[in-house]
Amino acid sequence: FLGVMPAYSAADDALTTKLVTFYEHQPDSSVPSHQATVLLFDPRNGSLKAVLDGSVITAKRTAAVSAIATKLLMPAFAEVLCILGAGVQAYSHYDIFTELFTFKEVRIWNRTKEKAMKFAKSVNGPVQVCSSAQEAVTGADVIITVTMATTPVLFGEWVKPGAHINAVGASRPDWRELDDELMKNSVLFVDSREAALTESGDVILSGAEIFAELGEVVKGTKPALPEKTTVFKSLGMAVEDTVAAKFVYDSWSAGN
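Below the sequence we write its predicted structure tokens.
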């Protein structure tokens, strides 16, 4: 797939387009499944100001949005973090989640256990490698799914009541990470209603009702409901790349 994600932010005085290539299940695993480039333009005349590493920006901004959702939606006493998947997004989520939150235990599961072992050895803190997704999820307060799954890997019967889930993978209308039980028995938050109803298999195929966009919670027009079991379905929005790219460019321009 080749994705094109243009956006303009008047507030940030920024105009960008992100180009994303996505190749599923490549035999050469040294090449990421997703590769991206962000083009930053001058909104006044359309001239190109910068070409930025979109893969880094995508990884960082996606994890940052998950962290915002978690700050608002996670239970009051969250001690156990679980990550399903061990790719680029697992690393970026681990970095920001361990920086912003204090978890007593971090667990990881990956379909290929070697990748999970490599992850545990390469990050800065202690990580427990689990032999099954169920083992990793059981009793976890915050769960992050960053897999390449096309059928559910996380099931509602495993999930602790009141847990918060960041569902980041399964970005196609026929792909799933979460089962119907979890989708229908949780309070569902999304980054964009429009995108979720056309792009997210977890939302479309389960028929789950969207309670709110994350922006509505940030603005205070919808409640967060951290006492409930919550799911944040993250698909990513072009404006996130725009704001991040402008932030990087401004920092670089200022010599920082």
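The longest helix spans residues 54-73.
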